[in-house]
Design a protein that fits this description.
Elements: H1 8-25, H2 30-66, H3 69-101, H4 118-130, H5 134-141, H6 146-152, H7 155-171, H8 177-197, H9 201-216, H10 225-249, H11 254-260, H12 262-271, H13 278-287, H14 292-305, H15 308-324, H16 331-347, H17 354-365, H18 373-405, H19 411-415, H20 417-423
Amino acid sequence: MKKFKLGLAWQILIGLILGVIVGAIFYGNENVTKYLQPVGTIFMNMIKMIVVPIIISTLILGVAGQGDLKKLGKLGVKTIVYFELITTFAIIIGIAAADFFKPGVGVNMEHLTKGDISSYVETSKTVAESSHGFADTLINIVPTNIVQAMASGNMLAIIFFSVLFGLGVAAIGEKGKPVLAFFSGVADAMFWVTNTIMKFAPYGVFALIAVTVSTFGIQSLIPLGKLAILVYVAMILFVVLILGGVAKFCGLSVFRLIRILKDELLLAYSTSSSETVLPRIMQKMEKAGAPKDIVSFVIPTGYSFNLDGSTLYQSIAALFIAQMYGIDLSLVDQITLVLTLMVTSKGIAGVPGVSFVVLLSTLTAVNIPVEGLAFILGIDRILDMARTVVNVIGNSLASLVMAKWENRLDKEKYDNYFENEKLV
């Protein structure tokens, strides 16, 4: 008799549902946070622990395998241009949706619960003091201390170092083979660690969701229901129309990609963290036909430059707050909003609470009261879950698109992905 086994997606879904139920039953009970928060934090810490070693090892292997600076530079330019175009579409769709449906009109602020945004304000001030524009962003890409960059999770600095190191290993030829063997072993070991950590995912998801629901309660959704629905609908339309259109143009399917990533998307949705699925989506995109060097470069870079879901949400949220305060933004103000989001969302990637920090900078630029963010803090986790999923889909698709544009996509692997998975 065949032993019944629940797949990871079902285990995470069960953890998610149980977390909502427990959180709703024990709403306002501090013991939920006291006993369950450590479980969720431990799971998230385990994920963060493996991200940097995986990025460094896979990127060095990928770049050293290619060993061509011209090809890498060409890929880098194509990737950044693609990211900018897609991100711009996300911002425009968000602004258009908020302009048309006006989710903030008629919202009574007296019926909303204000959250504490002081920590985000302080972070925003720190970022503003340490960065003064695009030039500073470029300067910060080059690390003065790679160990410090790894400790702080500065993704762009890590990528810069790994690319240079990989080119150096390729340049020394035979002498570099032991180095490549070492990083190959590191990558394989870290992917094994990833698969082991994923066994704890359902427990981590349960704890994180239970704490969130018990803290904010289901009722925090009701006054801001129109905003939540609009954000989710806009994100679905973005995935289907924009990402789906790009995929179709390249002979791919965004729905097939979603099927490939179903476990990872559910985990990303439950934890509101793209980092939890970074190692696994890199693995899966390789299995789906994208070369290692393209996957290793495009996906980590996308985590800083291609936050489609986040920028779409930020544009809707900015207009929602303006409408709530009765502020009518002119066309010039909205163009300023687009340009500000395009710059700020890149310059402070990796900062804790990045979406709120970006929103603070954006609202200031177009003279919208930043205090309005306090009203949407309670619902932010629910919206964060959706934007994380869109970010993951966008970055995964980008690796396949770049592979296609470089004429290096293994279409046979892509077409036979599910058949090959059954054989494993």
